[in-house]
Amino acid sequence: MRMFVYGLREYDERRFFDQFSRQYQVEFASTGEKPTLENTDLAAGYDAISILTAPVDKAMIDRYKELGIRAIMTRTIGYDHIDYVYAEQQGIGVLNITYSPATVADYTVMMILMGLRKQKYIRLRAAVQDFSLEGKLGSELGNKTVGIIGTGRIGSCVARELTGFGCRMLACDPFPNAELTDTVEYTDLDRLLEESDIITLHAPATQENYHIIDAAAFAKMKKGAGLVNCARGALVDSDALIENIENGRIGFACLDTVEHEFGLYYYNRMGEPLNNPRLAVLNSHPNVITTPHMAFYTEEAVSDMVENSILGLLEYFRED
Prior knowledge:
The structure is a single chain. By secondary structure, this protein is an alpha/beta fold. It folds into two domains: 119 residues, NAD(P)-binding Rossmann-like Domain (Rossmann fold), CATH 3.40.50; 189 residues, 3-Layer(aba) Sandwich (Rossmann fold), CATH 3.40.50. The chain contains eleven helices and twelve strands. The relative contact order is 0.14.
């Protein structure tokens, strides 16, 4: 199997691609560029391409089909950046990977605690040598109700990690996890929104879930509730979020992902205009923490992402 890798990061992925390509006897070539229509020809002569979160649209899929590409592997759990329905109609398989859910679950718990303890505001004030206590009073997680939207591998791991804090947990998922029934109380979305002090999102970015947290959802939340999103930016209506931060309904927001992050996250944009005005507004608030979609980013996860992308393609071509 011959694979062309887009967006390969020399500083962390390269050694794993070298290691696992030798181990599994896979031939690969690479570029640090993200896939675009203009560089599709780099993949000529290969069986599959491996990408990260860059969009792959119909025009690119048509060109990859002409080049003989039979599979697109994304080195991410999410695959909404690929027009996967069209790809499969054209006979091109679309595959995604898995990695330990603990990496995102750990990060989610960290974000919850940072929001509750007003860490952004504390650090901003400390940076100008304001070491006073006023305005920095936090609260304890054990006294809160946490609402978990989505209890797949990551959401379930978050629930298990939160048990140690003693907080009450509500959960909403169309497919409840029987292993969590002693840990969380499954309920409908409206009740979860109404009763939760903190809401954490772990649902996929599907058409049904688009803007699942919108103006109507914010109106149902407790005044002062916290929102954590370590899943997908499309789950939250950014305009409604900004409005509810500014009117005080939302007490804090911790966002590892936001709408329209393509072309920003994973790139160095120092000194450039920020082509996402909503992100700029969110960053201006002392009770909003944003990080560049890196909850997954651990040594273990990067190794898993590379190895599982190779194993997934090998399995796909074995069955093809």
